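Continuing the batch. This is chain 6 of the set; chains 1 through 5 are on the previous pages. Same settings as before, nothing changed between runs. Recording input and output for traceability.
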Amino acid sequence: MPYTIDLRTVPAPLKTVPCSGDILASALAVCEESTLRSVAANMGIELESVHVDPERAKRLVSSAERFCSTLQTLRHGVEVSTEFALE
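Output for chain 6:
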């Protein structure tokens, strides 16, 4: 599926396609939400409405942050190398 990406050359209210920052923020939000839901299900917490004691809430959020791969990549980085050659 092809994507069109904007480099933020127009003001936010007028833009019609996401920039790379929008895509990254969306990836983080989706990862955090799905991880939070998985951890909650594993803890027996239904997320229609969350009413848990503070200690359990801390454990829920801590686990979700630990298992969100996008968040972990942002926090700890990943080695990237670029090669360029002219022929």
